[in-house]
From TrEMBL:
This is Thioredoxin-like protein AAED1. Transmembrane segments: none annotated. Pfam families: AhpC-TSA_2 (PF13911). Residues 1-79, 292-330, 362-406 are annotated as: Disordered. Residues 26-36 have a biased composition (Pro residues). InterPro entries: PXL2A/B/C, Thioredoxin-like_sf. Residues 1-10, 43-57, 321-330 have a biased composition (Basic and acidic residues). Residues 365-381 have a biased composition (Polar residues).
Amino acid sequence: MGDPTREEPAPRPAASPTAGETEQAPPLPARPPPPYVFDAADDVNHNRSHNHGDNHSDNQSNHSRQRDPSPSPQLSPKPAEFAIPRKAVASGSRTPSLTLEINTSQPEDFEGELATNNELPSRDTLRKIGNYIVLDRDGKTHPFKSLFTGSNVARRVLLIFVRHFFCGNCQEFLRSLSEAVTPDALLRLPVSTFIAVIGCGDPALIDMYVSETNCPFPVYTDPTRSLFQALDMTNTLAMGTKPAYMRKSMTRSIMESVVQGIKQIPAGNALKSGDQRQVGGEFLFEPRDLVTPVSTPRAEKTQPVGAFEEPSDKWATNGKGADHREDEEKTVTWCHRMKTTRDHAEISELIEVLGLPAVRVAPQVQRQSSGGGPSSATSQTRKGRGHSMAEQIRKLSAEQSRSPLA
């Protein structure tokens, strides 16, 4: 009688039940350990159900609810090499939660003025970056040091680092600078002085950049931005306060930049203007050894002051100037690093640093200044740091003007 497939119940006691008593079902066999536990002693839940008598009935009912009503074959435990023992946890102890540390400090980009400084680059830094490569408008490579030192380069060179080639702020700065400081004004100085511009975009955009800014000075580019980083120029998109050299509204500058980018789409250069977060600065390179004659040699005055121009036959045969100029070490005597996207040094400060007579460019300075004349570049408004040879240049200019041979 009964289902033959069912497990035989435990033998009944010899005494028959009395009338009125109901027959009790035999207890269920102990539940086998889970198939992923090899040793039942390591099963915390299994041990707990047998160790706590008061919870035995509850555990049994839970096992009954979780059990599939249909009969299932008995699962044998896995071999020892596949066992994943579950270790018991001490009562009251909890696994420590993992804490994710998030940097909530203000990012360097996009907000506020950057905490940059105007420390002069060290001699080691200048030697290290001397062989870094810049590209000209034709994509030809030049060592960085060839822009400020060598036999065919001016003894004093102001290098201006600008942002991407579509930046309307830097373009407006170069327009103002080109009107106030001309190559002719630099040629009148007793020591050969020149200016060069370095961007960070594709060299194919240099011609466009020169055309938009009317810049009379050579423009180069450092697409890798290695020079920007080595000279501690950093990244930001903050605009900052409006400088005196900005004569256009911000809306107009942005619209002109967009139009310039659209025009470059057919040539495939719309996205090659350079990193828009990169900001630049100004660095003045001058002779390090003050014992060297400050005045320009007479033979040098007939030579072009632009970089990378071929020397004339007379200069090539005259070894005096070439030997002297080739060995002359240059250093940065004054510099300024931008804190915002329109934080170039004011034109009046550059005029002062270069040693140019303010009276020759007074109309431009007065038009750009918000409330001052040629002397508006006071110590309170200066952005850069350092001591250039400007004072010596002015003294030599005064002596030259008094000389009958000048």
